[in-house]
Write a structure and sequence with these properties.
This protein is α/β, with parallel strands linked by helices. It folds into two domains: 2-192, NAD(P)-binding Rossmann-like Domain (Rossmann fold), CATH 3.40.50; 209-414, Rossmann fold (3-Layer(aba) Sandwich). It has 13 helices and 15 strands. The strands form three sheets. Strands 3-2-1-4-5-6-7-8 form an eight-stranded mixed beta sheet, with helices on both faces. It has a five-stranded parallel beta sheet with strand order 10-9-13-14-15. It has a two-stranded antiparallel sheet with strand order 11-12. The longest helix is centred in the middle third of the chain and has 32 residues, at 195-226. 47% of the residues are buried.
Length: 415
């Protein structure tokens, strides 16, 4: 099988490597010439794909900036970003660019699968017309399907191979072709009736998490006002073996999915004169959480007689989740900007992020940061940080992740 991948980031590159490792010829296309050059030299830019895996592919993966190389592929997967525009409306420009580029080389019998997350109807209403500019008809001359990515950066327990793959084709034949493709690398492929069903399934997965995270974050704020330890409450509730699923509070949501995807559905819902109030409310609560965290830091400083202005704040963990260096939509960045607006003197320590260009900061050694700060804030709880040492050496600690549970100290404050 000759497989083409458009977009060689956190979604496309792991897919490309999975197909190549399974013995298939893979052509990867990306607009970033420097990234393509690095990949061609065996240098990965994605944490989940070590450079050693690229080197072991023995020429079966060929990265390029030229979409014309996709003409010989049996299947092409589109794995490009789908961010939100300024008014939190979907930005499908990357999908449009990929669709136009692919239309110029599309051949009869090819399979095209969109993996980029978007609202129900994107595959049929937005991508299909672009591909049909080739003069070929979807469902007759070429196959078209949607299969949502389910990549969770940093995870090793659920991989592309072991995570079930949802597929919805434009026709039954399109679905069968897509199922056959993903069966080459996935242990289980789940077929649904239409691309819209697959698109909605992806949004449901992430909206479920968004709503529950919003719920526990709102409860954390209430517990703070009531003088109740929210972590004790969550631990107690989690002992129930049925009817409860644990979600922990935190500083907000980050990554390429959770902060973005719910707004795709609320945007589409407006076309049907349906106000998705529950989804919108969850988004608003999670967006406000960094503001609440900053208020909590300011209050902690005030309690020890220090103003936020010119206080030295050490942020522990700036990536959006533990164990990875991904900064996309990271709550720590919002918290940092808000603290700077208050005049705080910022520094950070993160073993996975050497530099944050937008803050003009580089990661400091933990000992150095603790020795020179007025308050240390645990924003992302990386497993390779010694939190007992943090509490022992920092004059004041505010923990937004529960990393210090089990430690008691007068100068320690947990969310």
């Amino acid at each position: 099988m000759r497989v083409g991948i458009i977009g060689l980031g956190y979604v496309g590159l792991p897919l490309a490597v999975a197909f190549a490792e399974a013995g298939h010829e893979v052509t990867g296309v990306d607009v970033d010439a420097r990234a393509v050059e690095g990949l061609a030299a065996g240098r990965s830019r994605v944490e989940d794909v070590p450079s050693e895996r690229l080197a072991a592919l023995d020429g079966r993966f060929r990265p390029t900036v030229d979409p014309a190389r996709l003409a010989d592929c049996d299947a092409v997967l589109i794995c490009v970003p789908t961010p939100l525009a300024n008014q939190r409306e979907p930005d499908l420009s990357y999908i449009a660019e990929a669709g136009r580029a692919l239309a110029g080389v599309l051949g009869e019998g090819q399979l095209v699968v969109l993996e980029s997350t978007s609202y129900p109807g994107t595959t049929r209403e937005r991508l299909q017309p672009l591909l049909e500019e080739s003069g070929l008809a979807a469902g007759r001359d070429f196959h078209l399907a949607f299969s949502p990515e389910r990549i969770d950066p940093g995870r090793t327990d659920h991989t592309i191979t072991t995570t079930p793959k949802v597929v919805g084709g434009l026709t039954d034949a399109c679905t069968r072709r897509a199922v056959e493709l993903y069966a080459l690398i996935c242990e289980r492929v789940v077929a649904v009736s239409t691309p819209e069903a697959a698109e909605m399934a992806k949004l449901l997965e992430n909206i479920f998490r968004s709503v529950n995270i919003a719920l526990i974050n709102e409860l954390a704020v209430l517990c703070d006002r009531m003088g109740i330890d929210v972590w004790e409450v969550v631990d107690a509730a989690a002992t129930k073996p049925f009817g409860f699923m644990r979600f922990d509070p935190g500083p907000g949501m980050g990554g390429h999915c959770l902060p973005v995807d719910p707004f795709y559905l609320s945007f589409k819902a407006r076309e049907y004169d349906f106000p998705a109030e529950f989804i919108e409310l969850a988004g608003k609560i999670n967006q406000h959480q960094p503001h609440y965290c900053v208020e909590r830091v300011v209050r902690a400083l005030n309690d020890v007689g220090r103003p936020a202005r010119e206080s030295r704040v050490l942020i522990l963990g700036v990536s959006y989740k533990a164990g990875v260096g991904d900064l996309r939509e990271a709550p720590a960045l919002k918290i940092a900007h808000l603290l700077r607006e208050l005049g705080a003197d910022l520094s950070y320590h993160d073993p996975h992020v050497a530099e944050v260009a937008e803050l003009g900061l580089v990661s400091r050694p933990l000992a150095e940061g603790l020795a020179s700060c007025d308050v240390a804030c645990v924003v992302t709880a990386h497993p390779d940080v010694d939190y007992e040492r943090v509490v022992a050496e920092a004059p004041l600690v505010v923990d937004f992740r529960g990393a210090t549970r089990g430690i008691e100290a007068a100068h320690l404050i947990r969310l």
